[in-house]
Design goal:
The chain is of the alpha/beta class. It has helices at about 10-20, 30-35, 55, 60-65, 65-80, 90-95, 115, 180-185, 205-215, 240-245; strands spanning about 20-25, 50, 50-55, 100-105, 125, 125-135, 140, 145-150, 155, 165, 190-195, 215-220, 235. It binds ligand BJW.
């Protein structure tokens, strides 16, 4: 779509939005892009650190090879997040939670910006950058409750072993029950939004497919088309921060 073209919400979608009872939203990195958080793929400013692409530094192999450097990378990202805040898309979604009989926000993002905008009970499929978990006893901690050793690696307050960021890397299992809860909501939703994700990473990208197969009217919001675009009932080619506030007008 041309950048100067006006994005509009179709009359059909406005009607469905007004009449929906059970709404499921899946978000990805694009929803935080307008806050200044780099996306992983596409958009021209994909996450790279010290010359390493994100899929190398955010990998299970890197955890084994150099945990201190992984912590340095996540400390850097948290430092950047401390300087920014939620954008219009996060704020609009926080409002949607009071609009519908049942509203489920599922995110692949680890930045905590939905919660900072006021969203509650967010299903975080890929963890949270503000938490750590023990490599030995699996206990989870808010970072503020932990201390690093001399190499900068955080130490488990319970058992004294090393902590790692509480995020899900490729090939790792999602947090117990998170996908299952999201899938159950997808199966019973009447309206599903898929916002700001390249829809390349599974099982997250499977949620809109589940919702659509179960009969939900499915809508993508993204400036670029994705592998899910063709199966959606509507594709709104625009930025989330510009599109989502239009539903309140
Ligand atoms: C805007 C915008 C604006 C820009 N407004 N939009 C089935 C088939 C094939 C493979 C698999 C499968 N099932 C599982 C797999 C394996 C794998 C996988 O999916 N691989 C594929 C890539 C091939 N999945 C896994 O490994 C998952 N685990 C798992 O399935 O466990 C069971 C299992 C184990 C072993 C074997 C098999 C199964 C775990 C996935 C973990 C993903 N982790 C990461 C890193 C987190 C840590 C960190 O932050 O460093 O999560 S990867 C990265 O990608 C991150 C994201 O959450 C995730 C998704 O990215 P997202 O959000 O879509 O962002 P982008 O950057 O890709 O896209 C941004 C979009 O925004 C673009 O479309 C832009 O256009 C758009 N945009 N500005 C709206 N203003």
């Amino acid at each position: 779509m041309n950048a100067n073209q006006q994005v509009t919400i179709s009359a059909e979608l406005r009607r469905r939005f007004a009449e929906a009872h059970r709404v499921l939203v899946l978000t990805g990195a694009g929803v935080s892009a307008e806050s200044g958080v780099p996306t992983f793929r596409g958009g021209g400013q994909s996450a790279v650190w010290k010359g390493m692409p994100f899929d190398k530094i955010s990998s299970a192999g890197m955890l084994e090879r150099n945990l201190a450097e992984v912590w340095e990378w996540f400390n850097y990202r948290r430092g950047a997040l401390e300087k920014i805040g939620p954008n219009q898309a996060h704020l609009a979604l926080a409002q949607w939670q009071t609009r519908f009989e049942n509203f489920t926000l599922v995110t692949q993002n680890v930045d905590g910006l939905h919660q900072r905008a006021g969203s509650r009970d967010v299903i975080e499929l890929h963890g949270n950058i503000w938490r750590a978990r023990c490599l030995s006893c699996s206990a989870k901690f808010d970072l503020q409750d932990t201390e690093p050793d001399s190499s900068g690696v955080l130490i488990c307050p319970d058992c004294g072993n090393h902590l790692r960021p509480d995020v899900v890397l490729f090939g790792e299992m999602l947090p117990a029950g998170a996908f299952e809860r999201a899938a159950t909501m997808a199966e019973t939703s009447d309206l599903c939004f898929v916002i700001g994700t390249s829809a390349l990473v599974y099982p997250a990208a499977g949620l809109p497919e589940i919702a659509r197969a179960a009969g939900a009217y499915t809508v993508e919001v993204n400036p670029e088309r994705t592998p899910l675009s063709d199966m959606c009932n509507e594709v709104i080619e625009g930025k989330a921060g510009a599109v989502l506030p239009l539903f309140e007008i």
